[in-house]
Amino acid sequence: xxxxxxxxxxxxxxxxxxxxxxxxxxxxxxxxxxxxxxxxxxxxxxxxxxxxxxxxxxxxxxxxxxxxxxxxxxxxxxxxxxxxxxxxxxxxxxxxxxxxxxxxxxxxxxxxxxxxxxxxxxxxxxxxxxxxxxxxxxxxxxxxxxxxxxxxxxxxxxxxxxxxxxxxxxxxxxxxxxxxxxxxxxxxxxxxxxxxxxxxxxxxxxxxxxxxxxxxxxxxxxxxxxxxxxxxxxxxxxxxxxxxxxxxxxxxxxxxxxxxxxxxxxxxxxxxxxxxxxxxxxxxxxxxxxxxxxxxxxxxxxxxxxxxxxxxxxxxxxxxxxxxxxxxxxxxxxxxxxxxxxxxxxxxxxxxxxxxxxxxxxxxxxxxxxxxxxxxxxxxxxxxxxxxxxxxxxxxxxxxxxxxxxxxxxxxxxxxxxxxxxxxxxxxxxxxxxxxxxxxxxxxxxxxxxxxxxxxxxxxxxxxxxxxxxxxxxxxxxxxxxxxxxxxxx
Length: 490
Known about the structure:
Layout: H1 2-17, H2 19-32, H3 38-50, H4 54-62, H5 75-94, H6 102-106, H7 108-118, E1 123-133, H8 134-146, E2 151-156, H9 163-177, E3 181-187, H10 196-204, E4 207-212, E5 232-235, E6 239-243, E7 261-269, H11 273-288, E8 310-317, H12 325-336, E9 340-344, E10 348-349, H13 352-363, E11 367-373, H14 379-395, E12 398-402, E13 406-407, E14 411-414, E15 418-422, E16 426-427, H15 428-433, E17 436-442, H16 444-458, E18 461-463, H17 466-470, H18 474-485
Parallel strand pairs: 2-3, 3-4, 7-13, 9-11, 10-16, 11-12
Antiparallel strand pairs: 1-7, 1-8, 2-5, 5-6, 6-7, 8-17, 9-14, 12-18, 14-15, 15-17
């Protein structure tokens, strides 16, 4: 035992005695072996300087690149999808403005970008219901689940074994007993509070489960980044859900810390369900190592919406892709705005391209409105958010804190013509580090409805004026500055 202790002491002395050398080695690895944004590199070097050695361990957990490797394959449906994509591209390139409606014509370039970059097909027959209250959303979801005849596919970042999921579970058990296929895909980090035996219990009831990036040895999370932040439900290809609500009692307002939970979720009936289902299957195949593409019925008999339905593209992004698809959509929409941009996000830590786009819009006479929560759920992220909001306020944007509980809604509306809402926050993590999914809706009626919802929320907001921001305390200024320095790695 003494020999072991002596060996550990010797190793400890060696490590501390060569700390500068180790730090230099780690810095070389960060700078030369990872192609990162310079701001992100400096943030990691700063962390390494202040917390030697431990800073590099944190880098291994949170900062290593995935090398943009393609994780999700869909070779079984590529020919079918490419045929539709090429057809839409040809139609967009060769049709005159007189041959297309105004919504398509104005956003033709964005539609083309989504087709070219990720094969996001434009569908034009979707009926959309917007939910902003968790109780209403989950009541509708549970009722739709009760109607399931073939399958229920669920994908959530967070699922908690509490009163809300118990309500859902009752229905899932009933449907599984009836022979309906039930699959639940969950993120290991988001569901870290749920023990493995709970998921095994679900399996025993006929409910299939799959874990995205599972922890090592049951609890040890080696990937703080690269989480599956998507929230998707598809039922019998008849109805689909996408948006910001996870599954937990706080999302229906039963957590005293947050109070009322204000979020946004879309219920879709129409051809856009195909893309939600495709996204779920790709994620499931990777996590479960089970190829659902071999059964063609999961992508068939998709319910069509009404002839007067909304035009929708489902877009996904993640660190396995060289493009930041959702960020690029936000950018293009901001640049195309002529009158007004309304943004809701719990975390506002944009990269330089988004900051520049918003600044240009403001100086071009576009009204920019940004709404964030009045309270933090992650303090470091919140104070970094407040710092960037201060820049927007000083530039002339109208910025607000939502005071009626916690704001978790994620998206933006442009000119009451188009909106992009889903799972992605307006921050670097959602743009490049997490797997996200959003819906771009090209429909003036629904865009006006989303704008009206934003303006109803304003009744529960406090505006952050230039005077109020300039008069913040020294303590808040310090928090902002420190968190902003770390914002590229938050």
